[in-house]
Write a structure and sequence with these properties.
The protein is built from 24 helices and 14 strands. By secondary structure, the protein is an alpha+beta fold. It is elongated, with a radius of gyration of 45 Å.
Length: about 750
């Protein structure tokens, strides 16, 4: 019966607090009921001791479950609390730093620094000057590859974020943490623009908060395209180039409108480290970074694999360390003159110039080829060239061998002795007092005070015409003429023609001892070319604003007459002879009549040739910046050859025309063909103190003089020497070598 009760007894699990007992506890309870069932009919009641013994075990199981859950709940709770307090703290910082900023209603995009666009005579761009170094372009006007490349490498979510990109920031942080170094930045294009426009580059919490606020404001104020355009037109691309237009011209010598895929990738790659990655500094690093940009563009779907292959096959960009090209000498010249014409530059300007870029290129190539061929063997390192038309408009100007190496303009800013290239002004002054090309003077030793000028070859020819004297650059004849005319009258004539530099009133001015610039010397020859009118050298034709308002326009179209046409005709006949049979034979042009004069200074420090056709007047100089002597380089040598090469190229395709006043002219003779017998006869024309002793400009005399000073230092003043015309054993020059080396 007990067995029946046992087998029929129902065992049910006991629950407490909704939790079931474990199997072991259930089995124990069943066993207890079975063993105690035979003695007590009410054995279904649990024993108090057994019940109390089970409590600790139940409590232990319940406590473990609650502990893990409680930990999770605590973490969630404190995260929420900390998040709330963090948000409050961030909000407080934003409010605090925001309160330190001006009111948002006063925020204005600062004006882009004014740009000066300098144009050639045909409208092509010579250069952009200003703080940025380039004009602003809209997205539509620049190569489409540029914005694509910049977005791909700098801000892939640019068109989807609100100015700040949390996802991009998180991705950058993760990448930087996993790599252990700064690989990516989290700033968006909008943030970078805000920083560039309004903030300093310092890395502080305040600046970062302000950057975020300004970025949100920019996104609300402007469209995405406007923000991107502002960024691309202002961001720094290295090598002093701000904006894509400046950078494109700096590195590729082309507009950002014409940039190809590879070039756009290179530009976008520079934004990471503009100075370090500049192709002017490290072409290899720039190219490697461009490859990274191309990969990013492919990932974003902007370009295809075939386009990448084409871009990678392009020749890597190699840029010079500085802006390169002779036209930049002209750009510097324009910027020097602008303030005097329009005052402070406060807006974008367009400057139309007189420069012919084709002639400029030919001039630069001519000088480069001449220096490359002769630099070492003749010890010459620099050259300059100026070419102007009959109005004084500068058509070509080269201020040195390489603008990238030296920006000093030797054509405009350097002043040097012109040597015998100054003699045409002496002869012209003599023509004005009645002398003619057929006037005769005696080529013989001359002494003026303690100055004894000699000819280059130290030979004398006796009686010669002024035409032959100029053709062969005879120093003794020039010295006689300056004393006949008077140094002051020579200076007055030179000033009328355009020499503005200070000139010393002394006898040695006949041989070009007063220093002048190449541009003023060349422009002073132009009246011989144009029939006697002043040719003020100028390169700026017009200055206007971006909207077309004209601020300045030159008025050199009605120049004053400075020489009588008859004098011009006489001078041109003589200077044609310089090229046809004198020291300038190397300058002769095929099919074109030309006139000019060579010049060489003491110890071959400077060599010049200035000449003209009916079309252009051009001056060429060769020498060294430190005044070091060249190896017997005369004006009739290297400069005359370079002059010939440039003028030949400049006159291609033009119809030849004779030099002014040289056709149908009969030679004119003096009524008195007797040469002065002594220098005393010359001096008797005026008071003796009217012609002071000849000092030397800058302590230098000219090679055309081959100056000899008497041993008697006390012999000062103007003392009549031996008679002019005394032969003293001098011989006539009869060889071709003698003629070619005459000055």
């Amino acid at each position: 019966m007990a067995g029946n009760r046992t087998s029929g007894h129902r065992i049910e699990p006991s629950f407490e607090g909704g939790r079931g007992r474990d199997d072991g506890e259930l089995r124990m309870n069943a066993g207890e009921r079975v063993s105690g069932g035979g003695g007590k009919s009410g054995g279904s009641k649990p024993s108090p001791k057994k019940s109390s013994a089970r409590h600790p075990r139940r409590r232990g199981g319940s406590s473990g479950g609650r502990g893990f859950t409680g930990l999770i709940r605590s973490l969630v709770y404190w995260c929420v609390v900390l998040g709330i307090w963090g948000a409050i703290g961030v909000g407080g910082l934003v409010l605090y730093y925001g309160s330190r900023m001006p009111s948002a209603t006063t925020w204005v995009i600062p004006d882009r620094p004014p740009n000066v666009k300098i144009l050639a005579v045909n409208g092509d761009i010579i250069a952009n000057r200003g703080t940025t170094g380039g004009e602003a372009l809209s997205l539509e006007n620049m190569s489409p590859y540029i914005p694509q490349a910049v977005i791909a490498i700098e801000d892939r979510r640019f068109y989807s974020h609100f100015g700040v990109d949390p996802l991009g920031l998180a991705r950058a942080m993760l990448t930087n943490v996993t790599t252990g170094r700064m690989v990516q930045g989290g700033s968006t294009i909008t943030q970078q623009l805000a920083k560039n426009l309004f903030l300093s580059p310092e890395r502080t919490l305040e600046r970062k908060v302000q950057e975020v606020l300004l970025s949100v404001w920019l996104e609300q104020k402007y469209t995405k395209d406007q923000i991107l355009a502002m960024y691309l037109n202002r961001v720094f691309f290295g090598s002093n180039a701000y904006g894509v237009e400046a950078a494109s011209r700096r590195y590729f010598n082309k507009s950002a409108r014409d940039v190809n895929l590879g070039e756009a990738a290179l530009l976008a790659g520079l934004l990471k480290a503009p100075s370090r990655l500049s192709p002017a500094r490290d072409p290899k690093a720039a190219e490697e970074r461009a490859q990274v940009v191309l990969g990013a563009m492919r990932e974003e779907g902007f370009i295809t694999d075939s386009e990448i292959k084409t871009a990678m096959s392009q020749t890597p960009t190699k840029a010079k360390s500085f802006w390169s090209g002779a036209q930049y000498y002209v750009a510097d010249m324009v910027m020097d003159q602008l303030p005097g014409m329009v005052g402070e530059i406060s807006q974008d300007l367009i400057v139309d110039t007189t420069l012919d870029l084709n002639l400029e290129k030919k001039a630069e190539e001519t000088l480069a080829e001449s220096l490359d061929a002769s630099s070492q063997k003749l010890d010459v390192s620099q050259a300059a060239l100026v070419s102007i038309d009959g109005t004084g408009a500068i058509r070509a100007l080269v201020g040195g061998r390489d603008y990238a190496d030296s920006q000093f303009d030797r054509a405009v800013k350097a002043r040097r002795q012109p040597g015998s290239a100054f003699k045409p002004f002496v002869y012209a002054a003599a023509m004005e007092i009645g002398r003619t090309p057929m006037s005769i003077r005696n080529d013989a030793p001359v002494r003026i005070g303690n100055w004894t000028p000699e000819n280059y070859d130290q030979k004398y020819r006796g009686e010669v015409t002024l035409a032959n004297a100029l053709a062969n650059s005879l120093n003794t004849i020039a010295a006689q003429l300056v004393m006949e005319v008077g140094p002051q009258n020579v200076i007055k004539l030179a000033r009328r023609l355009g020499i503005e530099s200070e000139m010393q009133s002394n006898a040695s001015i006949a041989l070009g001892t007063s220093e002048v610039s190449l541009v003023e010397l060349t422009s002073a020859y132009a009246p011989f070319m144009n029939g006697g009118f002043k040719a003020t050298p100028h390169v700026i034709r017009r200055i206007s604003t971006a909207d077309g308002t004209v601020l300045y326009e030159n008025t050199y179209d009605n120049p004053p007459r400075v020489l009588d046409p008859a004098i011009v005709s006489q001078m041109n006949q003589m200077m044609v002879g310089v090229i046809e049979r004198g020291t300038g034979k190397a300058a002769r042009l095929k099919g074109w009549q030309a006139a000019g004069k060579s010049g060489t200074t003491q110890s071959f420090r400077d060599a010049l040739f200035v000449g003209f056709t009916s079309n252009l007047t051009t001056g060429v100089w060769f020498g060294n910046d430190d005044g070091k002597s060249m190896k017997k380089v005369t004006g009739g040598g290297l400069p005359a050859k370079a002059w010939h090469d440039f003028m030949t190229a400049a006159h291609e395709g033009l119809s030849p025309a004779p030099v002014f006043g040289t056709t149908g002219v009969q030679p004119t003779f003096d009524t008195d063909q007797t040469a002065p017998e002594s220098i005393g006869d010359v001096l008797s024309q005026g008071p003796i103190d009217a012609f002071p002793q000849a000092p030397v400009s800058s302590g230098r005399m000219t090679a055309d003089q081959n100056t000899q000073q008497p041993a008697d230092a006390a012999n000062s003043g103007l003392v009549p020497p031996a008679d002019v015309g005394e032969t003293t054993g001098a011989t006539r020059r009869t060889t071709l070598f003698d003629i070619l080396t005459g000055g």
